[in-house]
Amino acid sequence: MLSSMNKNVQCTTWTGIASTLLSNGRTSASLFKLKIGNDSKTSNHSEGSNETKKLKEMDVIIWDECSMISKTALETADFVL
Is the pTM of this model over 0.70? Predict the structure, then answer.
């Protein structure tokens, strides 16, 4: 529905298995470049990179498995956005 309205949509999940079930799905760690080793407290996104620009162009991000997401990962994703 959103794609037919020319909206940029990205689906993401916390686990890799679930991301394979989604069309163009990515894990949250991949999308937000979360550093898993430090409990997702930081991101490897750099300002002005192509991936950061793509995130800024997104109209909607659908994040599946929200009950599994750690508080620090949400805070880092919020900071990246």
Answer: yes
